[in-house]
Design a protein that fits this description.
There is one protein chain. The chain has 265 residues and is of the alpha/beta class. It has eight helices and nine strands. The termini are close together.
Length: 265
């Protein structure tokens, strides 16, 4: 891939509003231009990882699409099909994201309270989430007494409480040790299989991005454009055996080739 090669945004998978569509996105921070006419289509009903060089705006893109920070220009269409999708967000810094004065149970219950669920409905939903995620630690304790993995699992449970249509995750494993990373990414696979929730994940680990995803959105250096949208369609549940497969290594090698070409450009 030469430095003069132009990149086209991935074509939408369908035409009925089933994608998250980003058109003409512009974003500057001071004198730094991150996006200048950025276009992309992120398929719904799948897991998509966002991967690219340092400083390319991976987390900024996620935050703009999630509505946490404003764009300077452009449009974001969440594929509403006439209805407003429910969205949720799992932050990288789970310690800052959880309310330290509330127990884990009350942290998970918080969005349910806001949505008007009764106490009985809250208890039923939290019990359902605990079973889905395999939570065995004491939810009546405060999160600061937990391990990092338990805190992030609490944050994931809270994000899933209102049954979102789209779940945004900003480097959800980066503060965890390897053992907890393996455990949590398998939990997220199980959540995806059980619910079909669209997941958009920012990752700085290429193997993790390929393993978890159905598609990997590769970005260029700023001003950022889409370098490629690679597909990985291995059946789920995926296991560590998949990491040794020819298809996994083909997709990973192609992603690495594109990434290195961008870094050197």
């Amino acid at each position: 891939m030469s430095s003069t090669e132009t990149f086209a945004p991935p074509a939408p998978v369908d035409t009925d509003g089933g994608n998250i569509t980003i058109t003409g996105l512009r974003k500057r921070f001071g004198n730094k231009t991150v996006f200048d006419g950025f276009d992309a289509a992120i398929p719904k009903g799948r897991v998509t990882s966002i991967f690219g060089p340092n400083g390319c705006g991976k987390s900024t893109l996620l935050n703009i699409v999630a509505g946490l920070i404003p764009a300077d220009a452009g449009t974001i269409d969440l594929g509403r099909n006439g209805t407003e999708p429910r969205t949720a967000y799992v932050f990288q810094d789970y310690r800052a994201a959880l309310f330290p004065w509330r127990t884990a149970y009350k942290n998970i219950a918080y969005p349910l309270q806001i949505a008007g669920y009764s106490k009985t409905e809250q208890a039923d939903r939290i019990d359902e989430l605990a079973k889905m995620l395999g939570i065995t630690f004491d939810l009546s304790a405060h999160p600061y007494t937990f391990s990092g993995g338990q805190q992030q699992l609490t944050a994931v449970a809270r994000s899933l409480a209102i049954q979102p249509d789209i779940l945004f995750l900003d480097e959800p494993f980066s503060a965890l040790d390897y053992e907890m990373t393996l455990s949590l990414r398998d939990k997220l696979q199980e959540v995806f299989q059980a619910t079909g929730v669209t997941m958009v994940v920012v990752s700085h680990d290429l193997e993790e991005a390929v393993y978890l995803s159905d598609a990997i959105l590769l970005l260029t250096k700023p001003p950022t454009q889409v370098a490629s949208l690679l597909e990985y369609d291995a059946p789920r549940p995926r296991t560590l055996t998949d990491v040794a497969s020819d298809e996994f290594n083909r997709v990973k090698a192609e992603a690495l080739r594109i990434f290195q070409s961008e870094v050197r450009r």
